[in-house]
Structure formats: structure tokens, C-alpha cells
Amino acid sequence: MPFRVDERATEFAEIDRFDGGVGWIAHPDEEMQRASHVLELDGELWVIDPVDAPGIDDLFAELGEVRGVVVALDRHKRDAADVADRHDVPVYLPAFFDGVSEELEAPVVRFGDELADTGVTARTVVDSRFWQEVALYDPDGGTLVVPESVGTADYFLAGGERLGVHPMRRAIPPRDALDDLAPDRVLVGHGRGVMTDATTALETALSRSRTRAPLLYAKAGRKLLPF
């Protein structure tokens, strides 16, 4: 299974459909399991960290009209500009993101603690030279989107976890940003979302991040061993 596929997708796998949104993985066979999502808010669509694929616009059309494209992690520029230009909408970036807008060939709109006028709050998860990330939380709909600090792809998970903290964040999990939330579902940037008992999965991931780190690193090490 390839770790990452760089060529344009020829198919996609739909994931995480619920009343208010849907997600997809443009390259279902890649190990990174790069996931993208669209949230429907009052009939308007917000596309988050998209990896483009044929047929995606038909998926959008089932839900409404695209209002904006959001980049929630500085490394997740992905195909945001292409999708935004195709729908004649801006790319929305958190106000503190640095060095991202210059790499996007599309109009850019900045946002702070709230995504435009949607009622969706933006929580700063990481703000450093090497990693800039926000989580998006819709308190009315119960949806939490975390693009990188937690995920469900195999390389995030250890010890029977349904949701795991990123390997590079295991020592310092994002408790300050996330542990007061009680989402109905957690959508992630790598892997399928957690659609049931999501609050428990999130609490477990954050509280046991450090203790399960050795299991995760051991699993990663075994994959590197020659057969």
C-alpha cells in the first residue's frame, strides 16, 4: 500500500456521511488515508482540506452550494485553490497562518475565532514555525473537525484505539484545545471519522496518549523490519 499518491485521483471513497455533511478519501489505497470533508451549514457548503477527484462536484451538489474552501492545517493546501477557483469562492485561512496564502492561487479570506458567520468556532491547536493547525467545532451540529493532531489512519492508532493522537504529538497531546468539547462525531484529516460515542473516543485518545506512545512506536518500528 503506498504511503502517499501524488497523481490526480481517478476515484474516491465516500466516508462519514451524516445529516450536515459528508467526507471522502480521494486515494483509498494510500497509507496516509488523506480525508476531506464538506459541512453543510444553513444550505451553504464549506469544503475542508480537499483532495480533488472526479465526481466530487456531484457530491457537493447533493447538499447545496459551495460558500468557501477551508485550509485548517498549513500543510493541507492540497487542492484547495483548484476547488475554490472552480466554484468561484475564496480559500479561508486562520488569521495566524503564516506562509500559506502565498502558495495558493486563489483569493484568500482570513478568519479568527469563528469561521465567517457560520457559528463554527476555530480552536488553535498548534501555532509554531513548523506546524499551524486549527480545529473546527460546530456546537449546534455536534461536529468536530481535527485535521492532523488526531486521526484514525493506522499509523495514528495503538492499543485498540478508535482515535489516536499523531505520533509527533503523543508526548504533548492537544488537551488544552480539545478536552472540554463533547462532540457527537470527530472528523479527521487522515482516516474515517469517529461517528459514534465520539466524546469517549476523544477523551480516551487525549488522556492515554503518552501511556500508549510506546505501543505506537513499537508498531511503527516493526513495519520497518525486513521480512
CATH architectural name = 4-Layer Sandwich
Count of discrete structural domains: 1
> Structural class per helix/strand content?
alpha/beta
Q: Estimate the strand proportion.
A: 25-35%
Helix count?
Answer: 5
Spatially, the strands of the biggest sheet line up as: 1-2-3-4-5-6-7
| CA-atom Rg in angstroms | 17 Å
Order of helices and strands: EEEEHEHEEEEEEEHEHH
Mean pLDDT: 93
| First-last Cα distance | 16 Å
- The CATH superfamily is Ribonuclease Z/Hydroxyacylglutathione hydrolase-like
Low-confidence stretches: none
Number of strands: 13
Q: Tell me the helix content.
A: 10-25%
Bulk shape: globular
Largest sheet: 7 strands, mixed
**CATH class descriptor name:** Alpha Beta
Topology:
Layout (H helix, E strand, L loop, with lengths): L12 E6 L2 E5 L9 E7 L2 E5 L7 H6 L3 E6 L9 H8 L3 E4 L13 E4 L9 E7 L4 E7 L4 E4 L3 E2 L12 E2 L9 H4 L6 E4 L9 H10 L5 H12 L3
Parallel strand pairs: 4-5, 5-6, 6-7, 10-13
Antiparallel strand pairs: 1-2, 2-3, 3-4, 8-9, 9-10, 11-12
Organism: Natronococcus occultus SP4
Protein name: Zn-dependent hydrolase, glyoxylase
Description of the molecule:
It comes from Natronococcus occultus SP4. The chain has 227 residues and is of the alpha/beta class. The chain has one domain (13-224): 4-Layer Sandwich (Metallo-beta-lactamase, Chain A), CATH 3.60.15. Helix content is 18%, strand content 28%. It contains 5 helices and 13 strands. It has helices spanning 56-61, 80-87, 175-178, 198-207, 213-224; strands at 13-18, 21-25, 35-41, 44-48, 65-70, 91-94, 108-111, 121-127, 132-138, 143-146, 150-151, 164-165, 185-188. The strands form 3 sheets. It has a 7-stranded mixed sheet. It has a 4-stranded mixed sheet with strand order 8-9-10-13.
